[in-house]
Amino acid sequence: MLDFEPRDVALPQGHFIDGKLAQGGQALDVMRPSDSKLLGAIPDATAELVDEAVNNAQQAWQDSGWGHRPPRERGRILRRWADLLDANAGELARLEAVGSTRPIRDALAHEVPFTAECIRFFAECADKFGGDAVPTRRDSLGLILTEPYGVVGAIAPWNFPLSMASWKCGPALAAGNAIVLKPSELTPFSTVRFAQLAVEAGVPAGVFNVVQGRGAVAGAALVRHPLARKISFTGSTLTGASIMSDAAHHGMKPVTLELGGKSPQLVYDDAGDLDALADRIVRGFTSNAGQACVSGSRLIAQRGIAEPLIEKVAAIVAQLRPGLTWREATRYAPLISERQAMKVDGAVRDSLAGGAQAYCGGGFFEHDLGGYFYRPTILTGVGSDMLAVREEIFGPVLTVQVFDDEEQGLALADHPTYGLAASVHTRDLGRAMRATRRLAAGTVWVNRFGRTGDFIIPTGGFKGSGIGKDLGRQAFEANLRYKSVLIDF
To answer: 22: which strand partners?
Structure first.
């Protein structure tokens, strides 16, 4: 039985600096998404406290020699960290469930194991990539040396707090950097325990610091800090653009940005089993109540399959019911906050006013839980200029557009702003490969939707969906800088 009571969960409340919890800044209330009740509070970091955390990380990085330790030693420490994450899976899952939109069953079965395996993957990268000897003249030797940046500043989102933190901390630490992480102020607690376990595993105190607070103050101060030599951010396209500008104006530092998406699910009429296909479509736009940057929120269906497919999708989502994230039976997540709920509902209302039709959904569940649970919504009759098609909603809303031929389908699938992910459903391999080549997206899935545990496959977007990659060797190498050396004999 996975059920638990929120009052029984011990919250690590505070910043985490130099290996211990720290206070500093006015108290900022944190609410439980499931019932909108007070969960706890965190200190809202000032720019001065962020300065302290980054300076502490720089000093700890220098004093510990973390960046100069043998790569396999760093790898061993990270593997111990992953083992501790597994050993404390129950505690971490409860922290994740009580404070985020992740139901306890999903947190235990997916979030914590995924986080641990991500750390293991990057632990193995530590001594596998970096540096080279290159051909030059006969009487000289060319070397490409790699070295860590120093302090990496990371800003993680609220939708998958633990796993998104692992995407940033794993490669940075494996490459020999120190890291200062700012989790979302909406989901701050599980990442502090994540950092505590890193230090327990042997990461030197101060090499992994966590600062709490709002993005406009703490996040901005981290990005602008002169000792934060690289920035990694996951979040909205608008915020990503601001971070890119700040990074350019405060030290010309590199950035990795995984930003918004408006992912198409392109379905041809030869896609096969309708029941399996409908299940894929549903998971693509209702997982975490649509609060995922890769959410498959645009169904582009060929005319011959569109109507029966929509019927099956609607029948599946009609079975979904809201529930508290600390109950094992819960399968459908709440929206993170009232603000997010109003954004989702506003986008749907705007599109309905513009002529779209709600095939199903369009509004909140009636319940007495207290949180914001939005009914899975299918919008038909939409145009490409409607807000629900044009902008990332970050909610369980699926727009439907119908096409007749291959060229028309590809044109509808291509989005003018976003290019994070896309999926193609067809049994024709040639058609699948033509679509894969044409779609301007950083990830294309064929006959599936969603990531797997194959951490070797990088993720990242084109266009307004970001620059750089998380996961894969590309993420590890992005945490190293390259130095060219030419030696004459």
So the answer is: 15
**Across the chain, what does the average pLDDT equal?**
97
Close Cβ partners of 231 (under 8 Å, ≥ 6 residues apart): 152, 153, 154, 155, 222, 223, 243, 247, 253, 254, 255, 256
Reported confidence tier of residue 32, pLDDT bands at 50, 70, 90: very high
Nearest to 219 by CA among 363, 47, 95, 347: 47
Mean of pLDDT values over 289-311: 97
Q: Note the pLDDT tens digit of each residue in 143-169.
A: 999 999 999 999 999 999 999 999 999
Residue 157 lies in a domain: yes
Structural domain of residue 52, as residue ranges? Answer: 6-259+465-488
pLDDT exceeds 90 at position 453: no
Q: What CATH number has the domain bearing residue 387?
A: 3.40.309.10
- Residue 1 counted as domain residue: no
The verdict on 239 and 269 lying in the same domain is: no
Same domain (yes/no): 248, 269: no
307 & 219 share domain = no
Q: Which active-site residues does the annotation give?
A: 258, 293
pLDDT of residue 12: 96
Bridge partners of residue 141, in order along the sequence? 487
Q: How many CB atoms are located within 10 Å of the residue 388 CB?
A: 26
List, for residues 359-393, the tens digit of each pLDDT value: 999 999 999 999 999 999 999 999 999 999 999 99
Q: Are strands 298-302 and 397-403 parallel, antiparallel or unpaired?
A: parallel
Q: Do 286 and 379 have their domain in common?
A: yes
202 and 247 both lie in a single domain: yes
Domain count, the chain: 2
Cα–Cα separations (whole angstroms), residue 444 to 134, 262, 326, 437, 477: 34, 13, 34, 9, 22
Burial level of 157, CB count in 10 A (0-12/13-18/19+)? buried
In terms of C-beta distances under 8 Å and separation of at least 24 residues, what long-range contacts does 107-114 make, across chains too? 108/2, 111/160, 111/162, 111/163, 112/85, 112/86, 112/162, 113/86, 113/89, 114/163, 114/166, 114/453
Residue-wise pLDDT tens digits, 468-477? 999 999 999 9
Residue type at position 349: R
Q: What is the CATH number of the domain that holds 253?
A: 3.40.605.10
> 229 and 369 share a domain?
no
The CA distance from 244 to 228, in Å, is: 14
Q: What average pLDDT does the segment 116-120 reach? A: 98
Distance CA 297, CA 470 (A): 22
